[in-house]
Amino acid sequence: MLVAGTTSDAGKSVVTAGICRWLSRKGMKVAPFKAQNMSLNSYVTREGAEIGRAQAMQAAAARTEPTALMNPVLLKPGGDRSSQVVLLGRPVGEMTAQGYHSGRQERLLDTVADCLAELRRSHDAVICEGAGSPAEINLRRTDIVNMGLARAAGLPVVVVGDIDRGGVFASFFGTTALLAERDQALLAGYVVNKFRGDVALLEPGLEMLHGLTGRPVLGVLPFRRGLGIDAEDGLAVSLGGAVGEPREAAPLGSDVLRIAVVALPLMSNFTDVDALAAEPGVVVRFTARPEELADADLVVLPGTRGTVKALAWLRERGLAEAVVRRAAEGRPVLGICGGFQMLGERIEDDVESRAGTVEGLGLLPLRVRFAQEKTLARPSGRALGEHAEGYEIHHGVAEVTGGEALFADAGGNPLDGCRIGSVRGTHWHGALESDGFRRAFLRAVADEAGRTGFVPASDTGFAALREEQLDRLGDLIEEHADTDALLRLIESGPPAGLPFVGPGAPEARHAGASS
Q1: Which member of 36, 74, 95, 154 lies 3.0 to 4.6 Å from 86 by CB, making a disulfide possible if both were Cys?
Q2: What pLDDT does 237 receive?
Q3: Is 429 a catalytic site residue?
Protein backbone atom coordinates (compact mmCIF):
# COMPACT_ATOMS: atom_id res chain seq x y z
CA MET A 1 0.00 0.00 0.00
CA LEU A 2 1.13 3.56 -0.70
CA VAL A 3 0.58 6.29 1.89
CA ALA A 4 0.48 9.62 0.04
CA GLY A 5 -0.27 13.10 1.36
CA THR A 6 -2.08 16.22 0.25
CA THR A 7 1.10 18.21 1.06
CA SER A 8 4.56 17.77 2.44
CA ASP A 9 4.49 17.24 6.23
CA ALA A 10 0.86 16.09 6.13
CA GLY A 11 1.82 13.10 8.27
CA LYS A 12 2.82 10.46 5.71
CA SER A 13 5.92 9.36 7.63
CA VAL A 14 4.05 9.09 10.93
CA VAL A 15 1.10 7.19 9.44
CA THR A 16 3.46 4.83 7.60
CA ALA A 17 5.35 4.15 10.82
CA GLY A 18 2.10 3.63 12.72
CA ILE A 19 0.81 1.13 10.16
CA CYS A 20 4.15 -0.70 10.28
CA ARG A 21 3.98 -1.00 14.08
CA TRP A 22 0.32 -2.10 14.00
CA LEU A 23 1.04 -4.82 11.42
CA SER A 24 4.12 -5.95 13.31
CA ARG A 25 2.00 -6.39 16.44
CA LYS A 26 -0.29 -8.66 14.41
CA GLY A 27 2.67 -10.93 13.74
CA MET A 28 3.18 -9.86 10.15
CA LYS A 29 6.62 -9.42 8.64
CA VAL A 30 6.43 -5.85 7.35
CA ALA A 31 8.84 -3.40 5.72
CA PRO A 32 8.67 0.34 4.98
CA PHE A 33 9.59 1.69 1.56
CA LYS A 34 10.17 5.16 0.13
CA ALA A 35 11.28 5.10 -3.48
CA GLN A 36 12.78 8.57 -3.45
CA ASN A 37 13.47 10.75 -0.46
CA MET A 38 14.84 14.30 -0.31
CA SER A 39 16.43 14.82 3.07
CA LEU A 40 19.56 16.00 4.85
CA ASN A 41 18.81 13.68 7.75
CA SER A 42 20.20 10.28 6.88
CA TYR A 43 21.31 7.06 8.51
CA VAL A 44 23.85 4.31 7.84
CA THR A 45 22.56 0.74 7.76
CA ARG A 46 24.56 -2.24 9.00
CA GLU A 47 25.47 -2.99 5.39
CA GLY A 48 27.07 0.47 5.15
CA ALA A 49 24.35 2.07 3.00
CA GLU A 50 22.99 5.60 3.45
CA ILE A 51 19.20 5.99 3.64
CA GLY A 52 16.76 8.56 5.01
CA ARG A 53 16.41 8.59 8.81
CA ALA A 54 12.62 8.45 8.51
CA GLN A 55 12.88 5.07 6.78
CA ALA A 56 15.27 3.83 9.48
CA MET A 57 12.71 4.79 12.12
CA GLN A 58 9.90 3.18 10.13
CA ALA A 59 11.99 0.01 10.02
CA ALA A 60 12.28 0.21 13.80
CA ALA A 61 8.48 0.54 13.92
CA ALA A 62 8.26 -2.60 11.78
CA ARG A 63 10.79 -4.32 14.07
CA THR A 64 13.07 -5.07 11.15
CA GLU A 65 16.61 -4.12 10.20
CA PRO A 66 16.79 -1.13 7.81
CA THR A 67 18.39 -1.77 4.40
CA ALA A 68 19.10 0.20 1.24
CA LEU A 69 16.12 -1.51 -0.41
CA MET A 70 13.81 0.57 1.77
CA ASN A 71 15.01 3.90 0.29
CA PRO A 72 16.72 3.24 -3.04
CA VAL A 73 16.98 6.91 -4.04
CA LEU A 74 18.05 9.60 -1.56
CA LEU A 75 18.53 13.22 -2.65
CA LYS A 76 20.67 15.40 -0.37
CA PRO A 77 20.30 19.09 -1.27
CA GLY A 78 23.50 21.09 -1.59
CA GLY A 79 21.75 24.36 -2.42
CA ASP A 80 18.58 25.65 -4.04
CA ARG A 81 19.24 23.98 -7.39
CA SER A 82 21.36 20.84 -6.91
CA SER A 83 21.46 17.68 -4.83
CA GLN A 84 23.75 14.75 -4.26
CA VAL A 85 22.09 11.61 -5.63
CA VAL A 86 22.49 8.56 -3.40
CA LEU A 87 21.51 5.35 -5.20
CA LEU A 88 21.11 2.11 -3.26
CA GLY A 89 22.98 3.67 -0.36
CA ARG A 90 25.96 5.06 -2.31
CA PRO A 91 26.50 8.56 -3.75
CA VAL A 92 26.62 8.59 -7.55
CA GLY A 93 27.09 12.32 -8.17
CA GLU A 94 25.61 15.80 -8.00
CA MET A 95 22.70 16.79 -10.22
CA THR A 96 20.54 19.84 -10.74
CA ALA A 97 16.81 19.51 -10.26
CA GLN A 98 16.30 20.21 -13.96
CA GLY A 99 18.75 17.49 -14.95
CA TYR A 100 17.24 14.99 -12.57
CA HIS A 101 13.64 15.54 -13.64
CA SER A 102 14.52 15.75 -17.34
CA GLY A 103 15.38 12.08 -17.61
CA ARG A 104 17.46 10.59 -14.81
CA GLN A 105 14.53 10.16 -12.44
CA GLU A 106 12.40 8.28 -14.95
CA ARG A 107 15.26 5.88 -15.74
CA LEU A 108 15.39 4.93 -12.04
CA LEU A 109 11.88 3.47 -12.06
CA ASP A 110 13.14 -0.03 -12.91
CA THR A 111 15.61 0.09 -10.00
CA VAL A 112 12.90 1.31 -7.65
CA ALA A 113 10.44 -1.35 -8.85
CA ASP A 114 13.06 -4.09 -8.41
CA CYS A 115 13.73 -3.00 -4.81
CA LEU A 116 10.02 -2.98 -4.02
CA ALA A 117 9.56 -6.39 -5.64
CA GLU A 118 12.39 -7.84 -3.55
CA LEU A 119 10.83 -6.50 -0.36
CA ARG A 120 7.45 -7.89 -1.36
CA ARG A 121 8.94 -11.34 -1.92
CA SER A 122 10.51 -11.40 1.55
CA HIS A 123 7.76 -9.70 3.60
CA ASP A 124 4.06 -10.18 4.25
CA ALA A 125 3.39 -6.48 3.65
CA VAL A 126 5.28 -3.42 2.41
CA ILE A 127 4.01 0.03 3.40
CA CYS A 128 5.23 2.62 0.93
CA GLU A 129 5.47 6.34 1.61
CA GLY A 130 4.98 8.94 -1.08
CA ALA A 131 6.67 12.34 -1.29
CA GLY A 132 5.13 15.79 -1.38
CA SER A 133 1.76 15.46 -3.10
CA PRO A 134 0.65 12.98 -5.79
CA ALA A 135 -1.12 15.89 -7.50
CA GLU A 136 2.09 17.73 -8.47
CA ILE A 137 1.08 17.56 -12.12
CA ASN A 138 4.24 19.34 -13.29
CA LEU A 139 6.28 16.33 -12.08
CA ARG A 140 3.89 13.50 -12.97
CA ARG A 141 5.63 12.47 -16.20
CA THR A 142 8.80 11.41 -14.38
CA ASP A 143 7.25 10.47 -11.02
CA ILE A 144 8.66 7.34 -9.38
CA VAL A 145 7.54 7.88 -5.78
CA ASN A 146 3.81 8.68 -5.89
CA MET A 147 1.32 7.63 -8.58
CA GLY A 148 4.09 6.55 -10.96
CA LEU A 149 5.15 3.94 -8.44
CA ALA A 150 1.57 3.05 -7.52
CA ARG A 151 0.64 2.45 -11.14
CA ALA A 152 3.80 0.50 -11.93
CA ALA A 153 3.29 -1.80 -8.93
CA GLY A 154 -0.53 -1.86 -8.76
CA LEU A 155 -0.61 -0.33 -5.29
CA PRO A 156 -3.72 0.92 -3.51
CA VAL A 157 -3.22 4.51 -2.35
CA VAL A 158 -4.41 6.19 0.85
CA VAL A 159 -4.05 9.98 1.03
CA VAL A 160 -3.30 11.69 4.37
CA GLY A 161 -4.38 15.29 5.03
CA ASP A 162 -3.42 17.55 7.94
CA ILE A 163 -6.67 19.09 9.20
CA ASP A 164 -4.71 21.28 11.64
CA ARG A 165 -3.64 23.38 8.63
CA GLY A 166 -7.22 23.92 7.51
CA GLY A 167 -8.82 23.17 4.14
CA VAL A 168 -8.51 19.40 4.43
CA PHE A 169 -11.71 18.62 2.50
CA ALA A 170 -10.70 20.86 -0.39
CA SER A 171 -7.25 19.26 -0.31
CA PHE A 172 -8.67 15.74 -0.51
CA PHE A 173 -11.08 16.62 -3.30
CA GLY A 174 -8.56 18.70 -5.23
CA THR A 175 -5.87 16.03 -4.97
CA THR A 176 -8.26 13.44 -6.36
CA ALA A 177 -9.61 15.69 -9.13
CA LEU A 178 -6.10 16.53 -10.38
CA LEU A 179 -5.15 12.90 -10.95
CA ALA A 180 -5.48 11.19 -14.31
CA GLU A 181 -8.31 8.66 -14.54
CA ARG A 182 -6.02 5.61 -14.31
CA ASP A 183 -4.30 7.12 -11.26
CA GLN A 184 -7.65 7.82 -9.61
CA ALA A 185 -8.52 4.14 -9.99
CA LEU A 186 -5.82 3.41 -7.38
CA LEU A 187 -6.82 6.07 -4.83
CA ALA A 188 -8.88 4.08 -2.34
CA GLY A 189 -9.46 6.43 0.59
CA TYR A 190 -8.35 9.21 2.89
CA VAL A 191 -6.96 9.61 6.41
CA VAL A 192 -7.54 12.82 8.40
CA ASN A 193 -4.53 13.65 10.57
CA LYS A 194 -4.20 15.90 13.65
CA PHE A 195 -7.90 16.37 14.40
CA ARG A 196 -8.81 18.30 17.56
CA GLY A 197 -12.25 18.10 19.07
CA ASP A 198 -15.37 15.98 18.74
CA VAL A 199 -15.33 13.68 15.71
CA ALA A 200 -19.14 13.91 15.56
CA LEU A 201 -18.75 17.49 14.35
CA LEU A 202 -16.60 16.24 11.47
CA GLU A 203 -18.85 13.41 10.33
CA PRO A 204 -21.14 15.44 8.01
CA GLY A 205 -18.08 16.55 6.08
CA LEU A 206 -16.75 13.00 5.90
CA GLU A 207 -20.07 11.81 4.48
CA MET A 208 -20.17 14.63 1.91
CA LEU A 209 -16.58 13.89 0.85
CA HIS A 210 -17.53 10.24 0.35
CA GLY A 211 -20.50 11.31 -1.73
CA LEU A 212 -18.40 13.66 -3.87
CA THR A 213 -15.51 11.28 -4.49
CA GLY A 214 -16.88 7.79 -3.89
CA ARG A 215 -14.04 7.15 -1.46
CA PRO A 216 -14.28 6.70 2.32
CA VAL A 217 -12.28 8.31 5.08
CA LEU A 218 -10.41 5.38 6.61
CA GLY A 219 -9.38 7.12 9.79
CA VAL A 220 -9.51 10.32 11.80
CA LEU A 221 -6.33 10.49 13.83
CA PRO A 222 -6.45 12.82 16.84
CA PHE A 223 -3.85 15.50 17.43
CA ARG A 224 -1.08 14.23 19.69
CA ARG A 225 1.93 16.25 20.73
CA GLY A 226 5.43 15.00 20.03
CA LEU A 227 4.51 12.16 17.67
CA GLY A 228 6.83 13.04 14.80
CA ILE A 229 9.50 10.51 13.86
CA ASP A 230 12.92 11.68 12.72
CA ALA A 231 12.24 14.59 10.41
CA GLU A 232 13.20 14.66 6.76
CA ASP A 233 13.99 18.34 7.12
CA GLY A 234 12.99 21.38 9.16
CA LEU A 235 13.48 22.33 12.77
CA ALA A 236 9.89 22.03 13.91
CA VAL A 237 10.09 18.29 14.45
CA SER A 238 13.60 17.95 15.77
CA LEU A 239 13.02 18.76 19.40
CA GLY A 240 9.84 16.71 19.25
CA GLY A 241 11.59 14.34 16.91
CA ALA A 242 12.00 10.74 17.90
CA VAL A 243 11.35 11.23 21.60
CA GLY A 244 8.38 13.59 21.59
CA GLU A 245 8.59 17.10 22.92
CA PRO A 246 11.18 17.90 25.59
CA ARG A 247 10.30 15.93 28.70
CA GLU A 248 8.23 17.77 31.27
CA ALA A 249 9.96 16.13 34.22
CA ALA A 250 11.46 18.64 36.64
CA PRO A 251 15.24 18.87 36.92
CA LEU A 252 16.69 16.40 39.39
CA GLY A 253 19.08 19.02 40.78
CA SER A 254 18.97 22.74 41.43
CA ASP A 255 20.40 23.69 38.01
CA VAL A 256 19.26 23.20 34.43
CA LEU A 257 21.67 22.78 31.54
CA ARG A 258 21.09 25.11 28.58
CA ILE A 259 22.27 23.90 25.17
CA ALA A 260 22.33 26.13 22.08
CA VAL A 261 22.50 24.40 18.70
CA VAL A 262 23.67 26.68 15.89
CA ALA A 263 21.14 26.45 13.05
CA LEU A 264 23.66 26.13 10.22
CA PRO A 265 22.72 26.42 6.55
CA LEU A 266 22.04 22.98 5.00
CA MET A 267 22.03 21.55 8.51
CA SER A 268 22.04 17.75 8.50
CA ASN A 269 21.32 15.10 11.11
CA PHE A 270 20.24 17.68 13.66
CA THR A 271 18.40 14.77 15.29
CA ASP A 272 21.73 14.18 17.07
CA VAL A 273 20.49 16.47 19.83
CA ASP A 274 17.16 14.68 20.35
CA ALA A 275 18.79 12.50 23.00
CA LEU A 276 19.87 15.62 24.91
CA ALA A 277 16.37 17.10 24.68
CA ALA A 278 14.99 13.89 26.18
CA GLU A 279 16.84 14.50 29.45
CA PRO A 280 15.04 16.17 32.39
CA GLY A 281 16.74 19.43 33.27
CA VAL A 282 18.26 19.87 29.78
CA VAL A 283 16.91 22.73 27.64
CA VAL A 284 17.82 22.59 23.95
CA ARG A 285 17.21 25.41 21.51
CA PHE A 286 18.27 26.24 17.95
CA THR A 287 19.65 29.69 17.26
CA ALA A 288 21.31 31.77 14.58
CA ARG A 289 22.17 34.76 16.82
CA PRO A 290 25.56 35.19 18.53
CA GLU A 291 24.05 36.83 21.61
CA GLU A 292 22.00 33.70 22.24
CA LEU A 293 25.20 31.69 22.64
CA ALA A 294 26.25 33.84 25.59
CA ASP A 295 24.10 32.21 28.28
CA ALA A 296 24.36 28.66 26.92
CA ASP A 297 26.21 26.06 28.95
CA LEU A 298 27.04 24.12 25.78
CA VAL A 299 27.14 25.24 22.15
CA VAL A 300 26.73 22.56 19.50
CA LEU A 301 27.85 22.98 15.88
CA PRO A 302 25.87 20.22 14.11
CA GLY A 303 26.40 18.52 10.78
CA THR A 304 25.91 20.33 7.50
CA ARG A 305 25.88 19.43 3.81
CA GLY A 306 27.96 22.57 3.11
CA THR A 307 30.82 22.84 5.61
CA VAL A 308 32.71 25.66 3.89
CA LYS A 309 29.53 27.63 3.17
CA ALA A 310 28.39 27.20 6.77
CA LEU A 311 31.78 28.38 8.03
CA ALA A 312 31.52 31.56 5.95
CA TRP A 313 27.98 32.04 7.27
CA LEU A 314 29.24 31.72 10.87
CA ARG A 315 31.79 34.45 10.22
CA GLU A 316 29.35 36.77 8.47
CA ARG A 317 26.95 36.70 11.41
CA GLY A 318 29.46 37.01 14.22
CA LEU A 319 28.77 33.45 15.38
CA ALA A 320 32.32 32.31 14.68
CA GLU A 321 33.69 35.04 16.95
CA ALA A 322 31.23 34.04 19.67
CA VAL A 323 32.30 30.39 19.48
CA VAL A 324 36.00 31.28 19.57
CA ARG A 325 35.41 33.55 22.54
CA ARG A 326 33.64 30.74 24.39
CA ALA A 327 36.57 28.42 23.81
CA ALA A 328 39.02 31.04 25.11
CA GLU A 329 36.93 31.30 28.26
CA GLY A 330 37.01 27.52 28.77
CA ARG A 331 33.29 27.10 28.09
CA PRO A 332 32.04 23.90 26.40
CA VAL A 333 31.72 23.57 22.61
CA LEU A 334 30.84 20.40 20.69
CA GLY A 335 31.21 19.97 16.93
CA ILE A 336 29.61 17.01 15.15
CA CYS A 337 30.67 15.99 11.62
CA GLY A 338 30.68 19.25 9.61
CA GLY A 339 30.72 21.16 12.90
CA PHE A 340 33.79 19.16 13.94
CA GLN A 341 35.52 20.02 10.67
CA MET A 342 34.88 23.74 11.16
CA LEU A 343 36.59 23.64 14.56
CA GLY A 344 39.89 22.62 12.94
CA GLU A 345 42.79 24.61 11.55
CA ARG A 346 42.28 24.11 7.84
CA ILE A 347 39.84 22.62 5.34
CA GLU A 348 40.88 21.57 1.84
CA ASP A 349 37.72 21.20 -0.21
CA ASP A 350 37.85 20.49 -3.92
CA VAL A 351 34.79 18.23 -3.72
CA GLU A 352 31.81 19.80 -1.93
CA SER A 353 32.26 23.57 -2.30
CA ARG A 354 35.36 23.45 -4.58
CA ALA A 355 36.66 26.41 -2.57
CA GLY A 356 40.18 25.01 -2.18
CA THR A 357 41.93 25.69 1.11
CA VAL A 358 39.92 27.53 3.78
CA GLU A 359 40.98 28.44 7.28
CA GLY A 360 38.94 26.85 10.07
CA LEU A 361 38.16 28.26 13.49
CA GLY A 362 41.49 26.99 14.81
CA LEU A 363 40.11 25.53 18.04
CA LEU A 364 41.27 21.95 17.47
CA PRO A 365 44.56 20.60 16.02
CA LEU A 366 42.80 19.22 12.98
CA ARG A 367 43.24 19.38 9.22
CA VAL A 368 40.47 18.21 6.93
CA ARG A 369 40.73 17.12 3.32
CA PHE A 370 37.57 16.36 1.35
CA ALA A 371 37.75 13.05 -0.52
CA GLN A 372 35.68 12.03 -3.53
CA GLU A 373 34.54 8.86 -1.80
CA LYS A 374 32.13 9.25 1.09
CA THR A 375 32.85 7.56 4.43
CA LEU A 376 29.85 5.49 5.54
CA ALA A 377 30.42 3.50 8.73
CA ARG A 378 28.85 2.22 11.97
CA PRO A 379 31.66 2.57 14.55
CA SER A 380 31.68 1.82 18.25
CA GLY A 381 34.14 2.50 21.02
CA ARG A 382 34.57 4.00 24.47
CA ALA A 383 34.56 7.53 25.81
CA LEU A 384 34.51 8.93 29.34
CA GLY A 385 34.64 5.36 30.60
CA GLU A 386 31.44 4.37 28.77
CA HIS A 387 30.52 2.40 25.64
CA ALA A 388 29.31 4.47 22.68
CA GLU A 389 28.03 3.70 19.19
CA GLY A 390 27.47 5.99 16.24
CA TYR A 391 27.45 6.28 12.48
CA GLU A 392 29.57 8.27 10.03
CA ILE A 393 28.47 10.08 6.85
CA HIS A 394 31.12 12.47 5.50
CA HIS A 395 33.50 13.29 2.67
CA GLY A 396 35.97 15.06 4.95
CA VAL A 397 39.03 13.06 6.05
CA ALA A 398 40.43 14.32 9.36
CA GLU A 399 44.10 14.45 10.25
CA VAL A 400 44.33 15.04 14.01
CA THR A 401 47.76 16.28 15.07
CA GLY A 402 47.28 16.72 18.81
CA GLY A 403 44.89 16.79 21.73
CA GLU A 404 43.04 13.81 23.13
CA ALA A 405 40.90 11.45 21.04
CA LEU A 406 37.22 11.63 21.92
CA PHE A 407 36.56 7.94 21.19
CA ALA A 408 38.99 5.04 21.60
CA ASP A 409 38.87 1.26 21.36
CA ALA A 410 38.96 -1.08 24.35
CA GLY A 411 42.76 -0.89 24.37
CA GLY A 412 42.80 2.90 24.49
CA ASN A 413 43.82 3.34 20.85
CA PRO A 414 42.27 6.46 19.28
CA LEU A 415 39.30 5.94 16.96
CA ASP A 416 37.80 9.35 16.26
CA GLY A 417 37.45 12.92 17.35
CA CYS A 418 39.51 15.34 19.34
CA ARG A 419 39.36 17.26 22.60
CA ILE A 420 41.32 20.30 23.73
CA GLY A 421 40.09 21.58 27.08
CA SER A 422 36.34 22.17 26.86
CA VAL A 423 36.25 21.98 23.03
CA ARG A 424 35.28 18.60 21.58
CA GLY A 425 34.60 17.35 18.08
CA THR A 426 33.70 14.07 16.39
CA HIS A 427 32.56 12.68 13.06
CA TRP A 428 30.24 10.27 14.87
CA HIS A 429 26.53 10.98 14.60
CA GLY A 430 24.20 9.36 17.10
CA ALA A 431 26.77 8.78 19.85
CA LEU A 432 24.65 10.75 22.33
CA GLU A 433 21.96 8.08 22.02
CA SER A 434 24.25 5.79 24.05
CA ASP A 435 22.83 6.33 27.53
CA GLY A 436 25.97 5.87 29.62
CA PHE A 437 28.11 8.07 27.41
CA ARG A 438 25.42 10.78 27.26
CA ARG A 439 25.17 10.93 31.06
CA ALA A 440 28.96 11.09 31.44
CA PHE A 441 29.15 13.80 28.78
CA LEU A 442 26.46 15.89 30.47
CA ARG A 443 28.22 15.60 33.82
CA ALA A 444 31.47 16.79 32.22
CA VAL A 445 29.74 19.72 30.49
CA ALA A 446 27.97 20.71 33.70
CA ASP A 447 31.29 20.72 35.60
CA GLU A 448 33.00 22.83 32.91
CA ALA A 449 30.05 25.23 32.76
CA GLY A 450 29.93 25.64 36.53
CA ARG A 451 26.46 24.08 36.79
CA THR A 452 27.30 22.16 39.94
CA GLY A 453 23.63 21.73 40.79
CA PHE A 454 22.82 19.84 37.58
CA VAL A 455 22.16 16.13 38.08
CA PRO A 456 21.75 13.89 35.01
CA ALA A 457 18.97 11.31 35.25
CA SER A 458 20.10 7.76 35.84
CA ASP A 459 17.08 6.15 34.18
CA THR A 460 16.66 7.93 30.82
CA GLY A 461 16.77 5.17 28.22
CA PHE A 462 16.71 6.71 24.77
CA ALA A 463 15.99 3.46 22.93
CA ALA A 464 13.08 2.80 25.29
CA LEU A 465 11.70 6.28 24.63
CA ARG A 466 11.83 5.62 20.90
CA GLU A 467 9.98 2.33 21.38
CA GLU A 468 7.38 4.03 23.52
CA GLN A 469 6.75 6.58 20.81
CA LEU A 470 6.52 3.98 18.05
CA ASP A 471 3.99 2.09 20.17
CA ARG A 472 1.97 5.29 20.48
CA LEU A 473 1.94 5.53 16.68
CA GLY A 474 0.72 1.95 16.46
CA ASP A 475 -1.99 2.76 19.01
CA LEU A 476 -3.09 5.71 16.90
CA ILE A 477 -3.73 3.47 13.88
CA GLU A 478 -5.26 0.61 15.86
CA GLU A 479 -7.66 2.84 17.78
CA HIS A 480 -8.60 5.49 15.21
CA ALA A 481 -8.31 3.92 11.74
CA ASP A 482 -10.49 1.39 9.93
CA THR A 483 -7.93 -1.38 10.25
CA ASP A 484 -10.20 -3.96 8.54
CA ALA A 485 -10.37 -1.73 5.48
CA LEU A 486 -6.61 -1.15 5.53
CA LEU A 487 -6.00 -4.92 5.69
CA ARG A 488 -8.31 -5.49 2.73
CA LEU A 489 -6.38 -2.93 0.69
CA ILE A 490 -3.04 -4.52 1.60
CA GLU A 491 -4.27 -8.04 0.82
CA SER A 492 -6.47 -7.39 -2.23
CA GLY A 493 -5.30 -4.12 -3.78
CA PRO A 494 -7.44 -1.18 -4.88
CA PRO A 495 -11.16 -1.95 -5.09
CA ALA A 496 -12.74 -2.12 -8.53
CA GLY A 497 -15.14 0.52 -9.77
CA LEU A 498 -13.81 3.59 -7.97
CA PRO A 499 -15.52 6.59 -9.63
CA PHE A 500 -13.72 9.21 -11.68
CA VAL A 501 -13.73 12.74 -10.23
CA GLY A 502 -13.48 15.45 -12.88
CA PRO A 503 -11.78 17.22 -14.43
CA GLY A 504 -8.73 14.97 -13.93
CA ALA A 505 -5.30 15.53 -15.38
CA PRO A 506 -4.70 14.57 -19.01
CA GLU A 507 -3.03 11.21 -19.56
CA ALA A 508 0.56 11.44 -20.74
CA ARG A 509 3.53 9.21 -21.34
CA HIS A 510 5.26 9.03 -18.01
CA ALA A 511 6.89 6.68 -15.58
CA GLY A 512 4.49 3.81 -14.96
CA ALA A 513 2.10 4.90 -17.72
CA SER A 514 2.17 1.62 -19.63
CA SER A 515 1.64 -0.62 -16.60
Answers
A1: 74
A2: 35
A3: yes
